[in-house]
Backbone:
């Protein structure tokens, strides 16, 4: 069958040579030949890389083996970054995967593959990041191709930072789960402030909604009642965002209430003892110096690992495990800072990739601020932990490439969930009857470059 197909194409080419231009002939031959190449979607690439890893794990006695600087790594699959799966051309593909070593270190590994769906083979494997810190990064040329850039030669934007301002469309998409009885859902609605201008361009919901106000922190929350006929429906919100880089700033309201404990961010006791020991002789150096001591302690002692009880923002867990994601990093900082008499507060949103202009976003991101010298100082400790070269930047700065959804913890609204106050609001909170539910949530963006604005 294959030989007859090639012969057919060859005969067509001969006929075309007699009555067509060379350019037209090449284009039509290419079109005919391309019919032999199966269409590849990201699900095919995901299946291909998982199959290759599974084979290596089986051959390696239960581990994916790699070497790094003379160290033998025994790795297990954590996740495939579905937002980065790419079809590079005919039978050429790219995948980015997180693999965890038995030591607890997490490696971001880049894979290049060749082949058709169900028959893909890995042609190149490289370690990209260690615990979130890049060993190299990628930069896109004007012709849309990509090349590696060593971190020491990378500009700040390649390490996640856009200074000055940024402008982008942000899409917040929710897919509802199966609903067997009446349900309720609460979704954060980002608001404009002095650092971001947010405009809701369009949205789609299956039923009418109600806009709630969480008065303590000024958050806006969309509320809806849902029913079984809404199972599997999608909710989509598209915002246009213009964001300014955030630097230390003044605010008229008193910061005193940001010294109080919250449910998962205790104040005093063990946090008082630990804060005192960290600050030590820096106590006489002023609030900023004390805050920096706490900031550096967390960078030096915590590891960014999505395992265990991560993602809840439990300062006690963070203090004990010294691991977690951005919520643990900043919850521990806030408990320590408040225990040291430094007002501090929590906010959550999404970090917009700086090294590309569109695509998926890997979940929510959160950060903190502390009050000193009459100003609120932004900090992003988990990002500083990933990119230590930017630790100074993230002490007093938040880059422009992000969007803020909500502020605060233990959010109280009416009507609210039967479970009580909301810990923090990034993904939707949903209840089906009296049972919590977790709808699939996906973020994506499309950056607006200056030439597009003009």
Residues:
């Amino acid at each position: 069958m294959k030989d007859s197909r090639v012969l057919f194409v060859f005969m067509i080419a001969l006929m075309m040579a007699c009555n067509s231009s060379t350019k037209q002939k090449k284009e039509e031959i290419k079109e005919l030949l391309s019919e032999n190449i199966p269409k590849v979607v990201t699900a095919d690439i995901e299946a291909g890389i998982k199959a290759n890893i599974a084979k290596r794990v089986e051959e390696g006695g239960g581990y994916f083996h790699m070497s790094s600087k003379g160290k033998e790594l025994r790795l297990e699959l954590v996740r495939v970054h579905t937002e980065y799966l790419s079809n590079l051309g005919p039978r050429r593909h790219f995948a980015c995967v997180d693999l965890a070593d038995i030591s607890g270190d997490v490696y971001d590994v880049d894979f290049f593959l060749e082949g058709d769906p169900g028959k893909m083979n890995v042609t190149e494997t490289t370690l990209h990041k260690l615990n979130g810190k890049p060993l190299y990064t990628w930069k896109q040329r004007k012709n849309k191709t990509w090349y590696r850039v060593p971190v020491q030669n990378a500009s700040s934007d390649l390490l996640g930072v856009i200074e000055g301002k940024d402008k982008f469309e942000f899409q917040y998409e929710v897919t509802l789960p199966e609903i067997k009885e009446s349900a309720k859902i609460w979704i954060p609605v980002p608001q404009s402030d002095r650092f971001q201008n947010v405009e809701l361009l369009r949205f789609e919901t299956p039923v009418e909604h109600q806009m709630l106000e969480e008065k303590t922190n000024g958050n806006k929350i969309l509320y809806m009642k849902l029913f079984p006929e809404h199972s599997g429906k999608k909710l989509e919100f598209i915002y246009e965002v213009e964001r300014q880089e955030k630097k230390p700033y003044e605010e008229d309201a008193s910061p005193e209430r940001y010294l109080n404990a919250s449910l998962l961010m205790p104040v005093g006791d063990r946090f008082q003892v630990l804060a005192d020991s960290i600050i030590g002789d820096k106590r006489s150096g002023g609030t900023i110096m004390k805050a920096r001591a706490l900031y550096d302690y967390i960078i030096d002692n915590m590891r960014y690992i999505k395992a265990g009880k991560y993602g809840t923002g439990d300062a006690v867990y963070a203090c004990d495990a010294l691991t977690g994601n951005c919520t643990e990093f900043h919850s521990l900082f806030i408990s320590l800072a408040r225990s040291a008499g430094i007002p501090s507060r929590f906010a959550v949103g999404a970090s917009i990739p700086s090294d590309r202009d569109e695509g998926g976003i890997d979940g929510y991101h959160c950060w903190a601020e502390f009050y000193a010298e009459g100003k609120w100082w932004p900090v992003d400790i988990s990002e500083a932990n990933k990119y230590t070269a930017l630790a100074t930047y993230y002490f007093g700065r938040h880059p422009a490439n992000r969007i803020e959804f909500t502020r605060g913890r233990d959010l109280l609204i009416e009507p609210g969930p039967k479970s009580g106050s909301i810990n923090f609001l990034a993904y939707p909170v949903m209840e089906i009857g009296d049972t919590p539910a977790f709808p699939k949530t996906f973020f994506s963006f499309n950056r607006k470059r200056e030439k597009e604005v003009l």
